[in-house]
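agent> Task received from the user: take the single chain below, predict its 3D structure, and emit C-alpha coordinates. No templates, no multimer pairing.
agent> Plan: (1) validate residues, (2) run structure prediction, (3) serialize to C-alpha coordinates, (4) report one or two observations.
agent> Step 1 OK, no nonstandard residues flagged.
tool_call: predict_structure(input=
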Amino acid sequence: MNALLTDLYELNMAASYLRRGMTGTATFSLFVRSLPPARGFLVAAGVESCLDLVTDLRFDDDDIRYLRDMQGFEARDLEAFRRLRFTGDVWAIPEGRIALAGEPILEVTGPLPEAQLVETLFLNQVTFETTIASKAARCVIAAGDRDVVDFSFRRTQGIEAGIDVARVSSMVGFAATSNVEAARRFGLVAAGTMAHSYVEAFADEAAAFRAFAQDFPGRATFLVDTYDTITGIKRAIAIIKELGLSGRLGIRIDSGDLVALSKRGRRILDQAGLRDVRIFVSGGLDETSIDQLVHGGAVVDAFGVGTRMGVSADHPYLDTAYKLVSYEGGPVMKLSRGKVTAPGRKQVFRRTRPFADLVGLYDEQVPAGTERLLEPMMIGGSRRGAREPIGETRARFKADLDRLPTGARSVSSPRPPVARSTAALRQLTQETRRRLAGLGFG
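)
tool_result: status=success, residues=442
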Protein backbone atom coordinates (compact mmCIF):
# COMPACT_ATOMS: atom_id res chain seq x y z
CA MET A 1 0.00 0.00 0.00
CA ASN A 2 1.15 3.54 -0.79
CA ALA A 3 1.69 5.05 2.66
CA LEU A 4 0.92 8.53 1.29
CA LEU A 5 -2.74 7.57 1.13
CA THR A 6 -3.30 9.50 4.33
CA ASP A 7 -3.79 13.03 5.61
CA LEU A 8 -0.74 15.20 6.15
CA TYR A 9 -1.49 15.65 9.82
CA GLU A 10 -1.14 11.88 10.32
CA LEU A 11 2.40 12.11 8.93
CA ASN A 12 3.14 15.14 11.09
CA MET A 13 2.03 13.33 14.24
CA ALA A 14 3.81 10.11 13.33
CA ALA A 15 7.07 11.99 12.70
CA SER A 16 6.75 13.85 16.00
CA TYR A 17 6.07 10.61 17.91
CA LEU A 18 9.05 8.93 16.30
CA ARG A 19 11.39 11.84 17.08
CA ARG A 20 10.46 11.57 20.74
CA GLY A 21 10.57 7.82 21.00
CA MET A 22 6.83 7.71 21.67
CA THR A 23 6.38 4.20 20.31
CA GLY A 24 4.53 2.63 23.23
CA THR A 25 1.44 0.52 22.65
CA ALA A 26 -1.67 2.50 21.80
CA THR A 27 -5.27 1.48 21.11
CA PHE A 28 -7.54 3.45 18.82
CA SER A 29 -11.28 2.74 18.59
CA LEU A 30 -13.30 3.31 15.41
CA PHE A 31 -17.03 3.79 15.95
CA VAL A 32 -20.10 5.61 14.65
CA ARG A 33 -21.23 8.34 17.04
CA SER A 34 -24.91 8.32 16.08
CA LEU A 35 -27.17 6.91 13.38
CA PRO A 36 -28.94 8.96 10.69
CA PRO A 37 -32.68 9.30 11.40
CA ALA A 38 -33.63 6.75 8.73
CA ARG A 39 -31.34 3.98 10.00
CA GLY A 40 -32.18 1.41 12.66
CA PHE A 41 -28.87 -0.45 12.50
CA LEU A 42 -25.51 -0.65 10.73
CA VAL A 43 -23.90 -3.46 8.81
CA ALA A 44 -20.17 -3.70 9.56
CA ALA A 45 -18.13 -3.49 6.36
CA GLY A 46 -14.81 -2.17 5.09
CA VAL A 47 -12.70 -4.13 7.56
CA GLU A 48 -11.47 -6.58 4.92
CA SER A 49 -10.45 -3.71 2.63
CA CYS A 50 -8.44 -2.18 5.47
CA LEU A 51 -6.62 -5.45 6.08
CA ASP A 52 -5.84 -5.80 2.37
CA LEU A 53 -4.25 -2.37 2.32
CA VAL A 54 -2.22 -2.31 5.55
CA THR A 55 -0.70 -5.75 5.04
CA ASP A 56 1.91 -4.18 2.76
CA LEU A 57 2.02 -0.63 4.15
CA ARG A 58 5.31 1.03 3.21
CA PHE A 59 7.00 4.23 1.99
CA ASP A 60 8.83 3.62 -1.30
CA ASP A 61 11.66 5.71 -2.72
CA ASP A 62 9.33 8.06 -4.62
CA ASP A 63 7.29 8.65 -1.45
CA ILE A 64 10.43 9.50 0.50
CA ARG A 65 11.65 11.93 -2.19
CA TYR A 66 8.27 13.67 -2.25
CA LEU A 67 8.19 14.06 1.53
CA ARG A 68 11.73 15.46 1.46
CA ASP A 69 11.43 17.79 -1.53
CA MET A 70 7.84 18.97 -1.29
CA GLN A 71 6.86 18.61 2.37
CA GLY A 72 10.17 19.41 4.04
CA PHE A 73 10.47 16.42 6.36
CA GLU A 74 13.92 16.03 7.90
CA ALA A 75 16.32 13.20 7.13
CA ARG A 76 15.63 11.51 10.49
CA ASP A 77 11.90 11.52 9.76
CA LEU A 78 12.43 10.07 6.30
CA GLU A 79 14.64 7.27 7.57
CA ALA A 80 12.06 6.39 10.23
CA PHE A 81 9.32 6.37 7.60
CA ARG A 82 11.42 4.17 5.31
CA ARG A 83 11.65 1.51 8.03
CA LEU A 84 8.03 1.77 9.15
CA ARG A 85 5.70 -1.19 8.67
CA PHE A 86 2.35 -1.95 10.28
CA THR A 87 2.99 -4.44 13.08
CA GLY A 88 -0.17 -3.92 15.09
CA ASP A 89 -3.30 -5.89 15.93
CA VAL A 90 -6.75 -5.30 14.47
CA TRP A 91 -9.81 -6.58 16.31
CA ALA A 92 -13.10 -6.00 14.52
CA ILE A 93 -16.74 -6.93 14.19
CA PRO A 94 -16.69 -9.36 11.24
CA GLU A 95 -18.13 -8.02 8.00
CA GLY A 96 -21.82 -8.69 7.56
CA ARG A 97 -22.62 -8.55 11.26
CA ILE A 98 -25.04 -5.92 12.48
CA ALA A 99 -23.52 -3.14 14.57
CA LEU A 100 -24.91 -0.26 16.60
CA ALA A 101 -23.93 3.35 17.17
CA GLY A 102 -21.52 4.00 20.01
CA GLU A 103 -19.75 0.63 19.89
CA PRO A 104 -16.42 -0.04 18.21
CA ILE A 105 -16.60 -1.54 14.74
CA LEU A 106 -12.88 -2.10 15.01
CA GLU A 107 -9.95 -1.35 17.31
CA VAL A 108 -6.30 -0.99 16.34
CA THR A 109 -3.60 -1.77 18.90
CA GLY A 110 0.06 -1.25 18.12
CA PRO A 111 3.00 1.17 18.35
CA LEU A 112 1.55 4.68 18.55
CA PRO A 113 2.99 6.03 15.24
CA GLU A 114 1.71 3.01 13.28
CA ALA A 115 -1.76 2.99 14.83
CA GLN A 116 -2.03 6.75 14.24
CA LEU A 117 -0.88 6.60 10.63
CA VAL A 118 -3.65 4.22 9.48
CA GLU A 119 -6.47 6.41 10.83
CA THR A 120 -7.42 8.06 7.53
CA LEU A 121 -7.35 4.79 5.60
CA PHE A 122 -9.48 2.94 8.14
CA LEU A 123 -12.03 5.75 8.41
CA ASN A 124 -12.25 6.01 4.62
CA GLN A 125 -12.88 2.33 4.02
CA VAL A 126 -15.13 1.55 6.99
CA THR A 127 -17.21 4.72 6.66
CA PHE A 128 -17.97 4.21 2.97
CA GLU A 129 -18.55 0.47 2.95
CA THR A 130 -20.62 0.47 6.15
CA THR A 131 -22.72 3.35 4.79
CA ILE A 132 -23.49 1.46 1.58
CA ALA A 133 -23.98 -1.95 3.22
CA SER A 134 -26.47 -0.44 5.67
CA LYS A 135 -28.42 1.26 2.86
CA ALA A 136 -28.40 -1.88 0.71
CA ALA A 137 -29.63 -3.99 3.63
CA ARG A 138 -32.71 -1.80 3.91
CA CYS A 139 -33.46 -2.40 0.20
CA VAL A 140 -33.30 -6.15 0.81
CA ILE A 141 -35.64 -5.82 3.80
CA ALA A 142 -38.12 -3.77 1.75
CA ALA A 143 -38.08 -6.27 -1.13
CA GLY A 144 -38.96 -9.22 1.08
CA ASP A 145 -38.67 -12.44 -0.89
CA ARG A 146 -38.13 -10.66 -4.22
CA ASP A 147 -34.70 -10.35 -5.86
CA VAL A 148 -32.74 -7.10 -5.77
CA VAL A 149 -30.04 -6.37 -8.35
CA ASP A 150 -27.27 -3.76 -8.13
CA PHE A 151 -27.47 -1.31 -11.06
CA SER A 152 -25.31 1.40 -9.46
CA PHE A 153 -21.97 1.22 -11.29
CA ARG A 154 -22.62 4.05 -13.75
CA ARG A 155 -23.47 6.44 -10.91
CA THR A 156 -21.08 5.50 -8.10
CA GLN A 157 -18.51 8.10 -7.20
CA GLY A 158 -15.52 6.37 -8.75
CA ILE A 159 -14.57 3.03 -10.28
CA GLU A 160 -13.40 1.37 -7.06
CA ALA A 161 -16.50 2.64 -5.29
CA GLY A 162 -18.56 0.75 -7.86
CA ILE A 163 -16.60 -2.44 -7.15
CA ASP A 164 -17.10 -2.00 -3.40
CA VAL A 165 -20.83 -1.34 -3.78
CA ALA A 166 -21.30 -4.55 -5.76
CA ARG A 167 -19.46 -6.54 -3.10
CA VAL A 168 -21.19 -5.16 -0.01
CA SER A 169 -24.66 -5.18 -1.58
CA SER A 170 -24.17 -8.86 -2.40
CA MET A 171 -23.00 -9.37 1.17
CA VAL A 172 -26.41 -8.26 2.49
CA GLY A 173 -28.47 -10.26 0.03
CA PHE A 174 -28.53 -8.64 -3.42
CA ALA A 175 -29.01 -11.41 -5.97
CA ALA A 176 -26.78 -10.01 -8.73
CA THR A 177 -24.86 -6.99 -10.03
CA SER A 178 -24.58 -5.29 -13.40
CA ASN A 179 -20.85 -4.74 -12.68
CA VAL A 180 -19.02 -7.40 -14.67
CA GLU A 181 -15.58 -6.87 -13.10
CA ALA A 182 -17.02 -7.05 -9.59
CA ALA A 183 -18.81 -10.25 -10.55
CA ARG A 184 -15.54 -11.72 -11.82
CA ARG A 185 -13.49 -10.53 -8.86
CA PHE A 186 -15.83 -11.76 -6.12
CA GLY A 187 -17.66 -14.62 -7.79
CA LEU A 188 -20.99 -12.77 -8.00
CA VAL A 189 -23.85 -13.25 -10.45
CA ALA A 190 -23.69 -10.72 -13.31
CA ALA A 191 -27.05 -9.53 -14.64
CA GLY A 192 -28.03 -7.26 -17.51
CA THR A 193 -30.77 -6.67 -20.04
CA MET A 194 -30.77 -3.94 -22.69
CA ALA A 195 -30.98 -0.13 -22.80
CA HIS A 196 -33.57 2.07 -24.47
CA SER A 197 -30.88 2.98 -27.00
CA TYR A 198 -30.81 -0.63 -28.20
CA VAL A 199 -34.53 -0.54 -28.96
CA GLU A 200 -34.24 2.88 -30.60
CA ALA A 201 -31.38 1.70 -32.83
CA PHE A 202 -33.68 -0.71 -34.71
CA ALA A 203 -36.36 0.13 -37.24
CA ASP A 204 -39.05 -0.90 -34.78
CA GLU A 205 -39.47 -2.38 -31.32
CA ALA A 206 -40.33 -5.87 -32.55
CA ALA A 207 -37.14 -6.00 -34.63
CA ALA A 208 -35.09 -5.04 -31.57
CA PHE A 209 -36.75 -7.69 -29.41
CA ARG A 210 -36.32 -10.34 -32.11
CA ALA A 211 -32.62 -9.58 -32.59
CA PHE A 212 -31.90 -9.64 -28.87
CA ALA A 213 -33.79 -12.89 -28.36
CA GLN A 214 -31.95 -14.50 -31.27
CA ASP A 215 -28.59 -13.46 -29.82
CA PHE A 216 -29.38 -14.35 -26.17
CA PRO A 217 -32.22 -16.90 -26.31
CA GLY A 218 -31.64 -18.36 -22.86
CA ARG A 219 -31.58 -15.08 -20.95
CA ALA A 220 -33.74 -12.57 -22.75
CA THR A 221 -35.30 -9.79 -20.68
CA PHE A 222 -37.15 -7.26 -22.81
CA LEU A 223 -37.16 -3.56 -21.91
CA VAL A 224 -40.78 -2.79 -22.76
CA ASP A 225 -41.27 0.90 -21.90
CA THR A 226 -39.29 2.67 -24.65
CA TYR A 227 -42.50 3.71 -26.44
CA ASP A 228 -45.70 2.34 -24.92
CA THR A 229 -45.35 -0.16 -22.10
CA ILE A 230 -48.43 -2.28 -22.70
CA THR A 231 -47.73 -2.48 -26.42
CA GLY A 232 -44.13 -3.39 -25.59
CA ILE A 233 -45.29 -6.24 -23.36
CA LYS A 234 -47.51 -7.61 -26.11
CA ARG A 235 -44.64 -7.40 -28.63
CA ALA A 236 -42.34 -9.25 -26.22
CA ILE A 237 -44.95 -12.00 -25.87
CA ALA A 238 -45.23 -12.26 -29.65
CA ILE A 239 -41.45 -12.66 -30.03
CA ILE A 240 -41.27 -15.25 -27.23
CA LYS A 241 -43.93 -17.33 -28.99
CA GLU A 242 -42.54 -16.74 -32.48
CA LEU A 243 -39.09 -18.02 -31.50
CA GLY A 244 -40.29 -20.63 -29.02
CA LEU A 245 -38.13 -19.14 -26.26
CA SER A 246 -37.70 -20.80 -22.90
CA GLY A 247 -35.41 -20.42 -19.92
CA ARG A 248 -34.92 -17.34 -17.78
CA LEU A 249 -37.16 -14.83 -19.55
CA GLY A 250 -38.47 -11.50 -18.33
CA ILE A 251 -39.77 -8.04 -19.07
CA ARG A 252 -38.37 -4.88 -17.52
CA ILE A 253 -40.40 -1.75 -16.80
CA ASP A 254 -38.29 1.33 -16.11
CA SER A 255 -40.86 4.13 -15.93
CA GLY A 256 -44.50 5.04 -15.33
CA ASP A 257 -46.92 3.78 -12.70
CA LEU A 258 -45.03 0.64 -11.73
CA VAL A 259 -47.87 -0.71 -9.57
CA ALA A 260 -50.51 -0.45 -12.28
CA LEU A 261 -48.20 -1.51 -15.11
CA SER A 262 -46.85 -4.52 -13.21
CA LYS A 263 -50.38 -5.71 -12.37
CA ARG A 264 -51.59 -5.32 -15.93
CA GLY A 265 -48.39 -6.82 -17.31
CA ARG A 266 -48.77 -9.89 -15.11
CA ARG A 267 -52.34 -10.41 -16.29
CA ILE A 268 -51.33 -10.15 -19.95
CA LEU A 269 -48.42 -12.56 -19.49
CA ASP A 270 -50.55 -15.07 -17.60
CA GLN A 271 -53.33 -14.92 -20.18
CA ALA A 272 -50.70 -15.69 -22.83
CA GLY A 273 -49.64 -18.77 -20.89
CA LEU A 274 -46.31 -17.18 -19.86
CA ARG A 275 -46.61 -17.49 -16.09
CA ASP A 276 -42.86 -18.13 -15.73
CA VAL A 277 -41.83 -14.86 -17.41
CA ARG A 278 -40.58 -12.57 -14.65
CA ILE A 279 -41.41 -8.90 -14.18
CA PHE A 280 -38.41 -6.73 -13.36
CA VAL A 281 -38.79 -3.04 -12.42
CA SER A 282 -36.21 -0.27 -12.14
CA GLY A 283 -35.90 3.49 -12.30
CA GLY A 284 -34.70 5.56 -9.33
CA LEU A 285 -35.58 2.94 -6.72
CA ASP A 286 -34.43 2.65 -3.13
CA GLU A 287 -35.84 1.03 0.00
CA THR A 288 -38.55 3.66 0.42
CA SER A 289 -39.93 3.33 -3.11
CA ILE A 290 -39.58 -0.47 -3.01
CA ASP A 291 -41.55 -0.51 0.24
CA GLN A 292 -44.26 1.66 -1.34
CA LEU A 293 -44.44 -0.60 -4.40
CA VAL A 294 -44.72 -3.76 -2.31
CA HIS A 295 -47.40 -2.31 -0.05
CA GLY A 296 -49.14 -0.83 -3.10
CA GLY A 297 -49.61 -4.32 -4.50
CA ALA A 298 -47.05 -4.24 -7.33
CA VAL A 299 -46.65 -7.68 -8.93
CA VAL A 300 -42.86 -7.75 -9.21
CA ASP A 301 -40.28 -10.52 -9.19
CA ALA A 302 -37.14 -8.37 -8.99
CA PHE A 303 -36.02 -4.78 -8.43
CA GLY A 304 -33.07 -3.04 -10.11
CA VAL A 305 -31.56 -0.58 -7.66
CA GLY A 306 -28.93 1.89 -8.79
CA THR A 307 -28.02 5.45 -7.93
CA ARG A 308 -29.85 5.94 -4.68
CA MET A 309 -28.34 2.82 -3.14
CA GLY A 310 -24.89 3.19 -4.73
CA VAL A 311 -24.32 6.62 -3.20
CA SER A 312 -26.67 6.19 -0.22
CA ALA A 313 -28.49 9.23 -1.53
CA ASP A 314 -30.61 10.02 1.53
CA HIS A 315 -27.58 9.95 3.86
CA PRO A 316 -24.25 9.48 2.04
CA TYR A 317 -22.00 9.32 5.11
CA LEU A 318 -21.78 8.21 8.73
CA ASP A 319 -20.47 10.20 11.68
CA THR A 320 -17.47 7.95 12.28
CA ALA A 321 -14.60 8.63 14.66
CA TYR A 322 -11.19 7.04 15.30
CA LYS A 323 -10.07 7.95 18.81
CA LEU A 324 -7.16 7.09 21.07
CA VAL A 325 -8.53 5.21 24.09
CA SER A 326 -5.37 3.78 25.66
CA TYR A 327 -1.64 4.54 25.62
CA GLU A 328 1.13 2.63 27.39
CA GLY A 329 -1.42 0.72 29.44
CA GLY A 330 -3.26 3.81 30.68
CA PRO A 331 -6.80 4.78 29.66
CA VAL A 332 -7.30 8.11 27.88
CA MET A 333 -10.46 9.89 26.80
CA LYS A 334 -11.71 13.01 25.05
CA LEU A 335 -13.86 15.41 27.07
CA SER A 336 -14.98 17.84 24.35
CA ARG A 337 -18.64 18.75 24.72
CA GLY A 338 -20.77 16.49 22.52
CA LYS A 339 -17.77 14.34 21.57
CA VAL A 340 -16.85 12.58 24.80
CA THR A 341 -15.20 9.20 24.25
CA ALA A 342 -15.08 6.18 26.54
CA PRO A 343 -11.59 5.13 27.67
CA GLY A 344 -9.84 1.79 27.46
CA ARG A 345 -9.50 -1.07 25.03
CA LYS A 346 -12.95 -2.59 24.51
CA GLN A 347 -15.06 -5.57 23.60
CA VAL A 348 -18.72 -5.73 22.54
CA PHE A 349 -20.91 -8.39 24.10
CA ARG A 350 -24.13 -9.38 22.30
CA ARG A 351 -27.21 -11.06 23.67
CA THR A 352 -29.39 -12.36 20.85
CA ARG A 353 -32.66 -13.10 22.67
CA PRO A 354 -33.68 -10.46 23.44
CA PHE A 355 -31.28 -8.56 21.19
CA ALA A 356 -28.97 -6.27 23.18
CA ASP A 357 -25.36 -5.08 22.99
CA LEU A 358 -23.07 -4.24 25.90
CA VAL A 359 -19.85 -2.29 25.39
CA GLY A 360 -17.29 -3.39 27.93
CA LEU A 361 -13.57 -3.70 28.53
CA TYR A 362 -11.37 -5.94 26.45
CA ASP A 363 -10.31 -8.17 29.31
CA GLU A 364 -13.48 -8.38 31.39
CA GLN A 365 -15.38 -11.63 31.83
CA VAL A 366 -18.00 -12.33 29.18
CA PRO A 367 -21.44 -11.65 30.70
CA ALA A 368 -23.68 -14.71 30.90
CA GLY A 369 -25.78 -15.30 27.79
CA THR A 370 -23.66 -13.09 25.52
CA GLU A 371 -20.99 -13.55 22.87
CA ARG A 372 -17.96 -11.43 21.93
CA LEU A 373 -18.39 -9.48 18.70
CA LEU A 374 -14.87 -8.15 18.15
CA GLU A 375 -12.60 -10.84 16.74
CA PRO A 376 -8.85 -10.82 15.99
CA MET A 377 -8.43 -10.06 12.28
CA MET A 378 -4.72 -9.17 12.30
CA ILE A 379 -2.09 -9.96 14.91
CA GLY A 380 1.40 -8.49 14.84
CA GLY A 381 0.81 -7.13 11.35
CA SER A 382 -0.11 -10.56 9.98
CA ARG A 383 -3.59 -11.22 8.69
CA ARG A 384 -5.43 -14.15 10.23
CA GLY A 385 -6.76 -15.99 7.21
CA ALA A 386 -7.85 -14.90 3.74
CA ARG A 387 -10.86 -12.79 2.88
CA GLU A 388 -14.04 -14.79 3.49
CA PRO A 389 -16.31 -15.84 0.62
CA ILE A 390 -19.37 -13.64 0.09
CA GLY A 391 -21.65 -16.53 1.01
CA GLU A 392 -20.28 -16.68 4.55
CA THR A 393 -20.76 -12.97 5.18
CA ARG A 394 -24.25 -13.12 3.67
CA ALA A 395 -25.22 -15.95 6.01
CA ARG A 396 -23.81 -14.02 8.96
CA PHE A 397 -25.84 -10.95 8.04
CA LYS A 398 -29.05 -12.93 7.64
CA ALA A 399 -28.60 -14.60 11.02
CA ASP A 400 -28.13 -11.23 12.74
CA LEU A 401 -31.02 -9.64 10.83
CA ASP A 402 -33.39 -12.41 11.88
CA ARG A 403 -32.62 -11.63 15.54
CA LEU A 404 -32.88 -7.86 15.22
CA PRO A 405 -35.99 -6.26 16.79
CA THR A 406 -38.78 -5.51 14.33
CA GLY A 407 -38.60 -1.80 15.10
CA ALA A 408 -34.95 -1.63 14.03
CA ARG A 409 -35.77 -3.27 10.68
CA SER A 410 -38.59 -0.84 9.88
CA VAL A 411 -38.11 1.01 6.60
CA SER A 412 -40.30 4.02 7.41
CA SER A 413 -39.65 4.79 11.09
CA PRO A 414 -36.84 2.63 12.47
CA ARG A 415 -36.17 2.42 16.20
CA PRO A 416 -32.50 1.52 16.70
CA PRO A 417 -31.38 -0.51 19.72
CA VAL A 418 -29.04 1.36 22.05
CA ALA A 419 -25.70 -0.13 23.08
CA ARG A 420 -25.19 0.07 26.87
CA SER A 421 -21.96 0.14 28.87
CA THR A 422 -20.94 -2.54 31.33
CA ALA A 423 -20.40 -1.61 34.96
CA ALA A 424 -16.65 -2.03 34.48
CA LEU A 425 -16.54 0.43 31.58
CA ARG A 426 -18.67 2.94 33.47
CA GLN A 427 -16.34 2.71 36.45
CA LEU A 428 -13.22 3.18 34.29
CA THR A 429 -14.85 6.19 32.62
CA GLN A 430 -15.58 7.82 35.99
CA GLU A 431 -12.06 7.13 37.27
CA THR A 432 -10.48 8.57 34.13
CA ARG A 433 -12.65 11.68 34.36
CA ARG A 434 -11.62 12.21 37.98
CA ARG A 435 -7.95 11.76 37.10
CA LEU A 436 -8.17 14.27 34.25
CA ALA A 437 -10.08 16.70 36.47
CA GLY A 438 -7.28 16.41 39.05
CA LEU A 439 -4.83 17.43 36.34
CA GLY A 440 -6.89 20.51 35.57
CA PHE A 441 -8.74 19.12 32.54
CA GLY A 442 -12.51 19.00 32.29
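agent> Step 4: summary for the user.
The chain has a mean pLDDT of 96.
agent> Done.
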